[in-house]
Write a structure and sequence with these properties.
The chain has 430 residues and is of the alpha+beta class. 41% of the residues lie in helices and 19% in strands. The structure holds one RNA strand of 94 nucleotides.
RNA sequence: GGAGAGGUGCCGGAGUCUGGUCGAUCGGACCGCACUGCUAAUGCGGGGACCACCUUCAAGUGGUCCGUGGGUUCAAAUCCCACCCUCUCCGCCA
């Protein structure tokens, strides 16, 4: 959620910043929020005045009763009742207006960072690093889609996954299953120098899913467990961001760095029929997420730290990659500034998004109510949150199947993963 | 799932039966000052969060906050209802 005060103190700047996202309806919403906000404050002021009157009269009633002056007490009581009735009506209106304002604000996206590139869609995302490709290109034996290679090797069994759970579910077997786990372990181990490992719940409350921005706007993308009013997490970002929700931290604790491996659940509501083969898009997948809670000043540097860490993981696997920056027209609702790491998959002849690193400024932290206090100073400040996929397992798995495929159809295990593979160095036919 | 107990400020813990003088007793921690060669001890003083108004530096005024949300009342930490969470016992269970 953006700060309502911005609408009052810098309406022009706020409007200009949001205009960069390229959505005209958004500016209408903004105008509506602004007028709703001033209406709310007007009513609140009136309501508070009436409340003060009721409070004051009530005190006098108590006083009169103690003095045994029943007549005066009853007269005061009647006046207080009348004021109370007016107050009640105004309070109800204030609650209505406040609810409308909150709903509007929850749907207004974050302001893009001044340095975020302008653009209308994903076609305008500039490459900011790379591409890093092998000097002599890709040999013919790497031009095989991973699903063919992996199915032939008996390590991918999507047919049976579909039998068990339906379309868009995947299943890895044997060394393929080991490889998935190895990637998780690798990503966690490589960041354990600075990040606390968390094993959070995968089912969360509606409030938790609202804090990170998935609700109310994107309810269709998430799996709901209605009977228990819980939701399956689409990413570890959701529980980790809310971990300190509702708390006031000490500035000295910041930045806080956390990481988690979790399964991720996505309905992929808008993507039916897309990427149906292989491992590129599934309702359930594994991911290691890295996340930070910082002061506003620490945000910019942390964004680069997370990006560097995500990049190091991909580079450490010897995969061809590039880094793109997300332009204003392609940014997610909560994003302030954001980078994607893409790996090249020669078999699909596609750049695969394997990591997305984002700075949310105080947008999520305001929803989650994460604040910090500076020692010796009054009041609190809303924190900043950032996160990045350290490693999205299935797409990296797929990229390995294609980039490490040998002429005989076997797949070499990248050096960095071998410690986790029980001695398997090459995945051959089973 | 059943029975019982409980949820109050940074922490501990009163207040709830008997509604008003309770944003809240007391203690600890913390901060400031005094005392002390330094520490400790002691003494004195100070506290939160959030919203609006007013100034917009400081201060001030009003409102809200005693798990959450409703209700009763002139007035609710206190009475009523629902829900959430914690603890103990029972049941079930990897």
């Amino acid at each position: 959620m953006i700060d309502v005060r911005l609408l009052r103190t810098d309406p022009e700047g706020t409007r200009a910043a949001l205009a960069r996202r390229g959505s005209p309806e958004l500016l209408d919403q903004l105008a509506e929020a602004t007028s709703t906000d001033s209406r709310l404050r007007e009513i609140q002021t009136q309501r508070d005045t009436l409340r003060a009157e009721v409070n004051d009269l009530s005190k006098q009633v108590g006083q009169a009763r103690r003095n045994g002056d029943t007549a005066a007490a009853e007269e005061l009581q009647a006046r207080s009742r009348a004021a109370g009735e007016q107050e009640k009506a105004l309070a109800a209106e204030a609650d209505d207006v406040a609810a409308r304002l909150r709903d509007l604000l929850l749907r207004i996206p974050n302001l893009p960072h001044p340095d975020a590139p302008d653009g209308a869609s994903d076609h305008d995302n500039p490459v900011v690093k790379g591409p890093f490709l092998p000097a002599d290109g890709f040999p013919e034996h790497q031009r095989v889609p991973h699903w063919e290679t992996a199915t032939a090797l008996g390590i991918l069994d999507n047919e049976r996954a579909t039998k068990i759970s339906g379309a868009m579910f995947t299943m890895q077997r044997g060394p393929g299953a080991q490889l998935s786990r190895a990637l998780c372990q690798y990503a966690l181990d490589r960041n354990s120098d600075a990040f606390e490992e968390i094993r959070p719940p995968s089912l969360v409350t509606t409030a938790t899913l609202t804090a990170t921005g998935q609700l109310p706007k994107f309810a269709d993308d998430a799996y709901a467990i209605e009977r228990d009013d819980l939701w399956c997490i689409p990413t570890a970002e959701v529980p980790l961001t809310s971990l300190y929700g509702g708390e006031v931290l000490d500035e000295a604790q910041l930045p806080i760095r956390m990481m988690a491996y979790t399964p991720c659940y996505r309905r992929e509501a808008g993507s039916a029929g897309r990427d149906t083969r292989g491992m590129l898009r599934a309702h359930e997948f594994d991911k290691v997420e890295i996340l930070a809670v910082t002061t506003p000043e620490q945000g910019a540097a942390m964004l680069l730290e997370l990006r560097d860490r995500a990049e190091a993981l991909i580079a450490g696997l010897g995969l061809p990659y590039r880094i793109i920056e997300i332009c204003t027209g392609d940014m997610g609702q909560s994003h302030h500034r954001s980078f994607d790491i893409e790996v090249y998959a020669p078999g699909c002849d596609n750049w695969l998004e394997v990591s997305s690193v984002s700075w949310f400024s105080d947008y999520q932290a305001r929803r989650a109510d994460i604040r910090f206090r500076t020692t010796g100073e009054k009041g609190t400040t809303i924190a900043n949150t950032l996160n990045g996929s350290a490693l999205a397992v299935p797409r990296v798995w797929a990229a390995i199947m294609e980039n490490y495929r040998q002429a005989d159809g076997s797949v070499v295990v990248p050096e960095a993963l071998r410690p986790y593979m029980r001695g398997v160095e090459v995945i051959g036919p089973r």
